[in-house]
Design brief:
By secondary structure, the chain is of the alpha/beta class. It is globular and about 70 Å long. Helix 1 crosses helix 7. The two termini are 33 Å apart. 32% of the residues lie in helices and 16% in strands. The strands form 4 sheets. Strands 2, 3, 4, 5, 9 and 11 form a 6-stranded mixed β-sheet that branches.
Length: 554
């Protein structure tokens, strides 16, 4: 397993390879997501007004609909019950989907965000000032992005109401992955009558296994995200006072699905994208030609304390737990409920005897299936003959409220939900029980007698249907395990919180787990490793970095 410095060396080597050709953003990849035109309206519409039409706007992607209704993405053919034994979570096997968003949600960069072009607070005292490490974590999702910033001892989740004008609690911390290319080649969030709406910014990078051309729209989008996030931090009154007298030293971590993270070409692509975006965030205008020039030139210094680090999303999710006092070695499971997919995995936490080395995470089995909240909603609407119109950025409605709002009986909703819930339960049972019975799993783990620690994460983690599916999975596993001669009858799921400390208090909806984990020091975040490397892990004894060197106000 290569060290972080060796991985960064590989990335730098890949960056030196010249890339040719024009921007790849004009090509429409499959599964492209077409956002409503009103997302990008320059002036937010009033709540009581209907969404504006946009007959003159061209788009670089196929329209989601040609008849005024949303694309019927459907429940696609499901993946097998459980994948072959693997040393990593298969987060890369995502099924492209078209999320539904409230058509009344406009995007516009507020004027006050211009201060985010600077690396220092706008009232920064330019004299000698104590250094402070400020680390930004970007959870760049398939449809939404979340950002958190750790400034000294303060952890700040970035709120996007200044961009989206969204007032709902669940929408405050997510921003849609969409940007507009103007007729003059400048990228912005505001709509341009002759502009092209650019979306589906992440999947093509993973599917192409790297890049040979500059993904200008993706770079521009992340530059806008970075600029706004820095401005949001400066604008926080209680924290801004601390920043004025400090010299801010920025670090940057970005998440990447775990399986693609094992591919150096994809890691290098994400690294180069976010590095270029950080540089571009300081510009007054984001012109396509300037982005392509920066992509080619790659200056040595882009204003970061060290090179950006691309971190597997899986380990970022549980970084808070692994650094807390409740962390324990042994078998664990993760159930991640996203908008597109349900991810289930079992893994070991391997820690050094004195806990001075970073943990290692060998993964046993995993399943990634299109059973996320988007598909739950689609199943309800399609099966009940309702118009396919909902907002994926908001929590899933409880069955009784959904029935009341749509004039359907409780029995009808339960019948539709039961079939979907059974599929979710089957996936959880399949992964967990395979880990118990397969020799490449962990049949001898004490977890089968004492209880299996699990993490339930993602935007749908609190949805009642998935909670009931987890309860059903537990009951089935208790029955199966208890049927073995002499088998234990005390099996249960022990749910753990993946966050700790301040992050636990701030992340009420569970949507910021990855972003918070990405604000940790990259050198101390756990590593996903093959099983063959596990035996030597207990002999590792690498000192952890001194906290006084990391945070200026400690």
């Amino acid at each position: 397993m290569k060290s972080l410095k060796e991985q960064l060396g590989d990335i730098r080597a890949a960056l030196r390879k010249p890339s040719h050709g024009k921007s790849a953003d004009r090509v429409a990849p499959h599964g492209a997501f077409q956002p409503p035109a009103s997302w990008l309206a320059a002036v937010p519409p009033k709540p009581e007004s209907p969404a504006r039409s946009n007959p003159g706007s061209a788009t670089a992607y196929p329209s989601a609909s040609t008849a005024g209704t949303r694309r019927d993405s459907g429940l696609r053919r499901e993946a097998p019950l459980c994948t072959a034994p693997s040393s990593r979570l298969d987060h890369g096997a995502l099924v492209p989907f078209s999320p539904n968003i409230d058509a009344g949600c406009p995007l516009a960069m507020p004027e006050w965000a211009d201060v985010g072009r600077s690396l220092q607070h706008p009232e920064h005292d330019k004299g000698r000032a104590a250094r402070m490490i400020v680390r930004m974590g970007i959870d760049f999702g398939t449809a939404f992005t979340k950002v958190a910033i750790r400034a000294g001892v303060d952890l700040v989740p970035v709120e996007w109401s200044g961009v989206t004008a969204g007032a709902a609690e669940a929408e405050r911390y997510v921003v849609p992955d969409v940007v507009v290319r103007g007729e003059d080649g400048e990228y912005r969030w505001q709509r341009d009558d002759a502009g092209q709406i650019q979306a589906n910014l992440k999947l093509p990078i993973i599917e192409s296994k790297g890049l040979d051309r500059c993904p200008t729209a993706t770079v521009a989008y992340l530059a806008l995200v970075i600029r706004y996030a820095r401005a949001f931090l400066y604008r926080k009154t209680e924290i801004g006072r601390k920043l004025v007298g400090r010299s801010l030293c920025w670090e940057l971590n970005m998440g990447c699905p775990t399986k693609p993270h094992d591919d150096p070409a994809i890691v290098a692509a994400f690294h180069r994208i976010v590095r270029t975006a950080w540089q571009a965030a300081a510009w007054e205008h984001l012109h396509e030609s300037d982005i392509e020039a920066a992509w080619q030139n790659q200056p040595v210094d882009v204003g970061l304390e060290c090179e950006p680090v691309v971190v597997p999303e899986f380990v970022a999710q549980i970084a808070g737990y692994l650094s807390s006092s409740q962390a324990s070695p042994g078998l664990h499971a993760l159930i991640d409920v996203g908008a597109a997919t349900l991810d289930v995995a079992t893994f070991n936490v391997v820690m050094s005897n004195d806990r001075t080395a970073m943990p290692r995470i060998p993964i046993f089995f995993s399943a990634v299936v299109p059973l996320g909240t988007h598909h739950l909603r689609h199943n309800r609407y399609a099966q009940l003959g309702l118009e396919l119109c909902w907002n994926d950025a908001t929590p899933v409605e409880a069955a009784d409220l959904f029935g009341e709002r749509n004039g359907k009986s409780a029995d009808e909703i339960m019948a539709v939900d039961q079939g979907f819930m059974t599929k979710v339960t089957n996936r959880i049972v399949g992964v967990v029980d395979t880990t118990r019975t397969n020799t490449r799993g962990e049949p001898s783990s004490p977890a089968w007698r004492e209880g299996l620690p699990i993490f339930v994460t993602g935007g749908g983690a609190r949805c009642a249907l998935y909670r009931e599916a987890i309860e059903q999975a537990q009951r089935r596993l208790i029955q199966v395990i208890g049927q073995r001669p002499g088998g234990p009858r005390q099996f249960r799921f022990i749910e753990l919180n993946p966050t700790s400390g301040e992050a636990r208090d701030l992340d009420a909806e569970g949507r910021l787990t990855v972003a918070y984990g990405l604000t940790e020091d990259a050198e101390s975040i756990a590593r996903v490793v093959p099983h063959r490397d596990v035996e030597s892990l207990t002999r590792l004894n690498k000192p952890r970095p001194d906290q006084a060197d990391l945070y200026g106000d400690r």
